[in-house]
Design brief:
- The protein has about 230 residues and is of the alpha+beta class.
- The strands form two sheets. Strands 1-2-5 form a three-stranded antiparallel beta sheet, with no helix packed on it. A three-stranded antiparallel beta sheet has the order 4-3-6.
- A hairpin with a 2-residue loop joins strand 1 and strand 2.
- The radius of gyration is 53 Å and the shape is rod-shaped.
- About 5% of the residues have low confidence.
Length: about 230
């Protein structure tokens, strides 16, 4: 019995040492795992920082490109504004030159658009009179006709003449209808002859008043003589 107690004590001490060693090893393993986790976290943060820096560099490059683009656009805009600002001066110079040229040229005594005397006399060869406007209604359909007497008051036969017209209402600025026409048709106009000619016809809108309230203005624009 006396010899058994030391053995028991030795065994107990050995077991306690083994347990302490196991705890130490476990603690060392946990510390190593923690250090590994910390290293992984540090590497992850470094990677995130590198990605953030790269993104910031991309954004700075994009901002620089935008700034350069804005500078180019501003330069182009300034050039365009300078061009536009110079145009009125050029226009004023052109108007001034035209006025000076007109002042230097001899004025025409002809009342018709400054035409030469020959052209004016040709237009005056045709006289239109007794211009009438008529309504032709057929149910919902309506047409307005205009006719006149054309007289050749020159000593030359007229093959044809051209005219412009407008159909207007007293007190109204814009005509209801306007256009061009020709006359007198086949046979022409002999010197001193008067013929009834058809001026125009139109299908007016419902806003156009009755024909008796309308006015027709006709202007001779060209005359072709048979012997020319």
């Amino acid at each position: 019995m006396i010899y058994r107690w030391p053995v028991v004590l030795i065994l107990a001490f050995t077991g306690a040492c083994n347990q302490e060693r196991s705890r130490t090893e476990n603690t060392g393993s946990q510390v190593l795992d923690l250090e590994t986790a910390i290293e992984h976290e540090k590497q992850a943060r470094l990677s995130t920082q590198a990605a953030t820096d790269a993104r910031l560099e991309e954004l700075e490059a994009a901002l620089e490109r935008d700034r350069q683009g804005n500078l180019s656009l501003q330069t182009a805009t300034d050039a365009r504004l300078e061009e536009l600002e110079s145009r009125p001066q050029s226009l004023r110079e052109l108007i001034s030159a035209n006025r000076q040229r007109a002042a230097e040229e001899p004025a025409s005594d002809d009342p018709i658009l400054g035409m030469p005397d020959g052209a004016s006399a040709a237009l005056e060869a045709v006289v239109l009179s007794d211009i009438t406007v008529e309504d032709n209604r057929d149910g919902f359909l309506r047409r307005v006709y205009a006719k006149a007497n054309a007289t050749n008051q020159s000593d030359r036969p007229i093959r044809r003449f051209e005219f412009s017209y407008d159909l207007s209402e007293p007190g109204r600025t814009v005509p209801w209808d306007e256009g061009d026409g020709t006359g007198p048709g086949s046979g022409g106009l002999e010197p001193g002859e008067t013929r009834e000619i058809f001026l125009f016809s139109t299908s007016p809108s419902s806003d156009v008043p009755d024909a008796e309230t309308l006015n027709v203005t006709v202007r001779i624009t060209e005359v072709t003589f048979a012997d020319s």
